[in-house]
Design goal:
This protein has helices spanning about 10-40, 50-95. Helix 1 packs across helix 2 (about 50-95). By secondary structure, it is mainly α. The protein contains 2 helices and no strands.
Length: about 140
């Protein structure tokens, strides 16, 4: 069994990105709330806390970047799981049920027995990382 790709501490780094994203977005929300409240509550005098909007907006951008770094893998796996069956059905429809060897790099006569998918039971190529049928990881 081979090791997972990526950094050796990838799960802890991903967790730190997720925690930091929540913290930064909460802090940005506070700055935006105080800045907007002060702006709209000012009657005769100029707003005193309006500068907080200029701090809160960049914090939103940083928080969204951290969230993308922390949750990007989960989102990509979800999108792949939703898109792979649709792509397979589309190729099967366009090729008249022949399949079109989607994702394979060698001819059909050279196919070797590979692992079965734990989710749907489809047999895949020996070098496949993801199921040809449902898109789930074979590792």
């Amino acid at each position: 069994m081979t090791a997972e790709p990526g950094y050796s501490r990838q799960s802890s780094i991903r967790f730190m990105f997720r925690v930091a994203a929540v913290g930064v977005l909460v802090l940005a929300g506070y700055f935006l709330y105080v800045g907007l409240t002060d702006f709209f509550a000012a009657d005769d005098e100029p707003p005193q806390e309006f500068w907080m909007l200029f701090v809160g907006l960049p914090l939103v951008a940083v928080g969204l970047w951290l969230a993308m770094a922390g949750f990007g893998g989960a989102a990509a796996r979800y999108i792949a799981g939703e898109g792979a069956p649709v792509a397979r059905d589309t190729v099967e429809h366009l090729t008249g049920g022949q399949g079109g060897n989607l994702g394979r790099t060698h001819p059909d006569d050279e196919l070797t027995g590979g692992p079965y998918c734990r989710a749907c039971g489809t047999r895949n190529d020996a070098e496949a990382s993801y199921c040809d049928s449902c898109g789930k990881s074979l590792a």
